[in-house]
Structures are given as structure tokens and as C-alpha cells.
Amino acid sequence: MRVNGHGEAVEVRAALLRMRRSGLLAVSFGGLVAGGGGLPVGYGARQFRISELAGTATESLRGLSITTGNGLGGKTLAMGRPYAVTEYRDSRVISHEYDAAVAGEGLRSVLAVPIVVQRRVRGVLYGALRQPYSLGDRPLNVALDAARELEQALVIRDEAQRLLSFAQAPLPADPRAWEEVREAHAELRALAGQVPDMHLRQELLSACTRLAAAGAPPASTRPGRSTRGAPQLTPRELDVLSSISSGATNAAAAARLRLRPETVKSYLRSAMRKLGAHTRLEAVVAARRAGLLP
Fold it and tell me: Least buried of 26, 35, 83, 186, by fewest C-beta within 10 Å?
């Protein structure tokens, strides 16, 4: 499954609004290559569709399919680098397949920046003015910053998709293969804390619950408490314990969870106390027996 559709659209809109809020670009629009595709920088994706608009007065640009090499966005798509023109209609450095749509919105000065994820061009963001002013470094930097922020959001979504696919696959019967499951569980919990999309975050946490439940021994074989009477760890305590269970040091857990090492130690001590454990290993074993970790 893909987890990006609606969420990606929200993130593209957020990038466009950031460009407009700068006060340097009256109009912004853009879109992504369908299906998360794209070719390595320098080869260009085949096409993308303009799906999101901000500050526009008409619908002339919505749904426009931009092909590699065609127009300003197509050139950006093909080359993987920003371009700008001061008078779109008269520019000699681009082709003019989309002049009617651009003119329909009354745009004159336009810039385009690529969205590049793992050296693949995933789409294009545009900024524009209705006057023929030269778009210098300041508006270009605004657009580049918005593109970088969007790229980071797409990296997180790609990783979420990979981990969710793993979590939804049949789980291994061989106990030796569970180390990979535990590492995926730790990564899922860490990633969930970075995701602003509530729906996606819930999907990640639901996958964590599934992995933990699948790894727990049957209730009849568990010594001590059952899952119903399991200690109530806070989400952050469970995040830390999950990272520790996959072999991470306190420093590595802190880096993964974007916490200070002292904060990780505090959460770990609290989790150990709730689990009645005296060592890290005892805490991990107790959490697994309680069905809190895979």
C-alpha cells in the first residue's frame, strides 16, 4: 500500500503557502510525479501534474500535465535544477506548450524549483508574479527552502511506507529472524514521533501494536502479569525501551528519537521502575512478556 496520496497533497499545499507567506511570490503552484516515481537527477521524470494552487485567480493551471523538457517546469523536471524567466511568453530559453494556461492566470515572471528525494526528481514547485519583475535570490531562496522542507516530509513518508509494508507482511516463524522485526518496531515508533499527519501516525502506531502483540508469548505461558495487567508505560518510555531492545545505546536511542541522552536515561529509569526491572535487559524481557514489545 501507499500512504502518501492525500497526505502528500497536504504537504505540497503547505510548501506553496510558505512561499506565498514570504510576500515575495504572489502565486505558487506545483505537483508531484504520480506514484512517487521519478528518475535520477539529470534524467528527469516523464511527467507530473499540477495539482495544488495558492494565490491563483483562475483554474487554468489546475490539472495541467507537464512533460519532461516542455515549458519552464518541464525543463526543471528534466535537469533537476531551478530556472526562472522574467517574461514567460517571450522567453527564448523554454518551449511554449503551456503559454495559454500561464496567460490565463495572467502570470509574467515565473520560477520553478525541483523537488529531489534521494537523487530522484519527484516534482516541481513554481512561484510567480503578474508583473515582469526579475526574480532574484530572495524569492528563489524562499522557493528552495519550501522545496527542501517538502523533500524531508517525503523522505519520512517513503520510510513510513517501507516500514508499514514490512509490518503488514507475514511475520517470521524463526525466532532468529525476530531481530529484524524488533529493529522495524523501533524505527516505526521513532518515525511516528516525527510525523505531523495524524492519520499516518496512527497507522504507524497500529503497526507497532501488531508487531508487539505478534511477538508476545501466549497469555497462558507468561509468568507474572498478563497483558491486561501490564504496566502502563508512556509513549516516550516505550519509544526508548523499543530502541534499547533493538540493541541501541542511550546515545543512539537519543539520536534516533531526537532527544537528549539525559532524557533517554530518565525515560529508561522510569520504565525500569514500572516494570520492576533492575537492568536494561530485565526491562526489555519484562516488556516482551507483557506484550509491549515484539
Answer: 35
Residue whose cell numbers read 495558492: 54
In whole angstroms, what is the distance from residue 39 CA to residue 126 CA?
Answer: 20
Q: Give the ranges where 36-128 is alpha helix by DSSP (H).
A: 71-79, 99-104
- In sequence order, the 6+-apart residues with CB closer than 8 A to the CB of 192 are 201, 204, 205, 208
Gyration radius from the chain CA atoms: 24
Whole-number Cα distances in Å, 246 to 77, 91, 150, 194, 256:
40, 57, 30, 19, 12
- In angstroms, the CA 257 to CA 236 distance is 9
Around Cβ 136, how many Cβ atoms within 10 Å?
11
Q: Read off the C-alpha cell for 8.
A: 502528500
Give the whole-angstrom CA distance, residue 86 versus residue 70: 17
pTM given for the model: 0.77
CA dihedral for 231, 232, 238, 242, sign (positive or negative): positive
For the chain, the residue count is: 294
Q: Which amino acid is at 225?
A: R
Question: What is the rounded distance in angstroms from the CA atom of residue 66 to the CA atom of residue 30?
Answer: 10
Give the pairing of strands 109-117 and 47-49: unpaired
Contact (Cβ atoms closer than 8 angstroms) between residue 61 and residue 164? no
Geometric angle at alpha carbon 104, from 134 and 151, rounded to 5°: 60
**35-64 per-position pLDDT tens digit:** 665 556 655 558 899 999 999 999 999 999
The helix, strand and coil proportions of the chain, stated in percent and rounded to the nearest 5, come to 55, 15, 35
Model confidence pLDDT, tens digit, residues 239-269? 999 999 988 999 999 999 999 999 999 999 9
Distance from C-alpha of 84 to C-alpha of 73, rounded to nearest angstrom: 10
Say how far apart CA 172 and CA 89 lie, in whole Å: 60
Q: Any bridge partners for residue 123, and if so which?
A: 32, 115
